[in-house]
Structures are given as C-alpha cells and as structure tokens.
Specification:
By secondary structure, this protein is of the alpha/beta class. The protein contains 17 helices and eleven strands. Helices cover 39% and strands 15% of the residues.
C-alpha cells in the first residue's frame, strides 16, 4: 500500500510538471510560499527532498503543527512545578527534554522526580490503579490526540479512580490559523492542511481561508505522492485564480471528519483561550475540562505556582512555528542547539522543524 504512494513511477513527471507550471505563472512573485501546518508534513517535505527540488520555485514554511513546539514556556514550568511537588507525572516522551525557564523534566528526574513515559493517555489510568500517588497526565496535542484524552477522563470517572488528573494543554487548529493569517496576510500563497488533524475535524473547518482570505488550501497525506498531489492542487488553484479547500487525502479524510470522535471531545471539553509559544493567548484556540469533570483537572485540583516566563531571546522557535523564520536563520542551530543539547522545543520533538532540518539537511 505505502509503495503505491512512495515509489510510484508517475511521481517524477508530476513534480516536473508542477515546477514548470510554477515558473509559468503570470504575475506571481517566486518562490511561492506554502505553509504546512503539521509537524509530520515538515518531516516528509525534508525527508523526501521536496524543499530541495522546489527550492527556486516554492518555499515551504513550517507552521504551528508540532504540539510540543507550541507549548509555552510557562506551561512547561507548570509541568515542572507539579513534578517538584512529588506527583507522578505521566507524559509523552517528547516533553522530557523541553526546557522551561529554569529546569526540564529530564533534570527533575535526575533529582528524583517520578516521571513515566507512555504511548497512550490510557496508560496513565493503569498506573493510577497500582499507586496511591496522584498521577497527572500531561495532556498535550491537537485534535488527533484529544479523543483518547477524553476517554481517559471518562474511564476514570466511570471507574471512580480519584488519584488521577490531567494538566490540560491541548490546542485546536482552526483559530490559530485565523491568528496566523492576521499576522501574515499577503505572505502565504497556500496552505497544506494537517492530515492527522483533518481525519478528526474534516476539511470543512478550513473553508473560511479561501472565502475570507482568498488563499488556496489542500488536505494532504504524508507520502511523496500525497505531497505531490497536494502541491499540484495549490499551484492549480493559483493558476486558475479559484481558491478552495481541496481534499487530496480522501482515503483517510472525510469532509465532515469523524463525528464519533468529535462527540467524544465535546462530552469532556469546551473551548477556551490558551497560550501558544510565540503567539501568546489566542481566543478559543484550545480546550478546557468542563465543570462536571473538574476533579480530573489538575489546574483546579492543585494550586500551581509559576512565575511569568522568561523568554530565551537567542532561541527563535516561536518565529519558526509562526512561519516568519527558518531553522537556518537561528544562530544556535547545529552549534549550541542540537538534539543532544536542545535549547528549544523545535529541536526536541521529532516533529519539530529544527529537528527535521538537523536530521535531513537543508
């Protein structure tokens, strides 16, 4: 199945055709600027050579698609504070090395903090059943991950497991795109929409982008053929001056998304304002636990004390996820900042732009 989308003999002619069409565009300044709003897309674009192949005709901008990267320093400080209080922290592995203002979970583990890395939020429930300690799952992610976090809360509620809670730092995609467009209007020629997120929310929530901003969008998968078809769609929309939301990932994404997953999310969470790294607070761009399940909300269960974050001026991760700069613009990249010694989250997460540029080159 994957070979069909990776080693298809029609791919090379397709990419050459796209490049020729971009060069032939009338009245468009080159390179075109396409933003991918998914960390996995960033990795694929570099891994499969798209950035190099289209280097003079298309510039790919990394957007806020890495959930670890968009988590603010202040929120990282909250996680570290809870670990310092002796609670059992349960998290995805990418968060371990992300630096806060003065520490990181990795450093706290070295001091004796109890931190477990899991692959599923539901693993936190298994841990809570065999310990008397408070287990706190660090809920980071976009719509892709949120249904499983909702299941964790509902299962804990149904089984009356009271020594578990979540630090809810989840974020949602549509409203951050509105924020981005207010900041970068006129600087983006097209969007490659996130494949994983779109499986849950569908393609319909992006309709405001072509309608209000006259910018083409395509939902794409992650293999070379998927990306090629996505880029072809954007170039065709620009050529025809007819922007719309084109779904080129129909084997996984439906216009309406996954209704069952959406319903599960709505049972546990409600929209709220949340803080993003590099952006600050964006209205209704995240989710909070509803009042009925407040006993599972670590923010309400514990008094979390953190100071205002101290911005690390040398790290430009915030500008990278905003599409304003590239990892290659950072003076720390490949020098002081490496995967072994990450200065910012864009180098920590495997979905981070800096980590992808470091691994797959320029």
């Amino acid at each position: 199945m994957s070979d069909k989308f990776r080693n298809n003999p029609e791919l090379k002619p397709l990419l050459k055709k796209i490049k020729n069409e971009v060069v032939a565009l009338d009245g468009k300044a080159l390179p075109l600027k396409f933003m991918e709003v998914c960390g996995t897309h960033t990795v694929s674009i570099l891994k499969f050579g798209f950035r190099h192949f289209f280097k003079d005709s298309i510039k790919f901008l990394s957007g806020p698609g890495c959930p670890v990267c968009v988590t603010s320093t202040k929120d990282i400080d909250k996680i570290i504070f809870l670990a310092q209080q002796g609670h059992h922290i349960v998290t995805f592995g990418d968060l371990i090395k992300v630096p806060g203002t003065h520490s990181s979970l990795e450093k706290e583990v070295a001091k004796g903090a109890l931190v477990s890395v899991v692959y599923s939020p539901l693993d936190a429930l298994k841990i809570a059943k065999i310990t008397s300690k408070e287990v706190i799952f660090i809920a980071v992610g976009f719509e892709t991950t949120i249904p499983s976090i909702a299941s964790l809360v509902l299962d804990a509620y149904a089984q009356q497991i009271n020594n578990i809670s979540i630090l809810c730092l989840v974020k949602t995609m549509p409203n951050v795109l509105k924020y981005l467009l207010s900041q970068l209007q006129g600087e983006i020629d097209g969007f490659i929409m996130p494949g994983h997120v779109s499986v849950i929310i569908g393609a319909e929530p992006y309709e405001f982008i072509p309608k209000e901003y006259n910018i083409p969008c395509t939902v794409a998968g992650f293999e070379p053929v998927d990306l090629g078809l996505g880029v072809e769609s954007l170039v065709s929309q620009i050529k025809n001056k007819n922007p719309f939301v084109d779904n080129r990932y129909t084997r996984m994404v439906k216009p309406e998304g996954n209704r069952a997953a959406q319903e599960l999310i709505s049972v546990v969470f409600q929209e709220c304002d949340v803080s993003w790294r590099g952006f600050g607070s964006i209205p209704n761009s995240g989710l909070c636990v509803i009042e009925e399940f407040k006993q599972f909300d670590a923010e309400k269960k514990f008094q979390i004390e953190v100071k205002d974050e101290v911005v690390q001026s040398a790290c430009i991760c915030g500008d990278i996820i905003a599409g304003k700069k590239s990892p290659l613009d950072c003076t720390l990249f490949r020098k002081k900042c490496t995967p072994e010694n990450p200065i910012g989250p864009c180098m920590v997460s495997f979905e981070g732009a800096c980590a992808a540029y470091y691994k797959y080159g320029e």
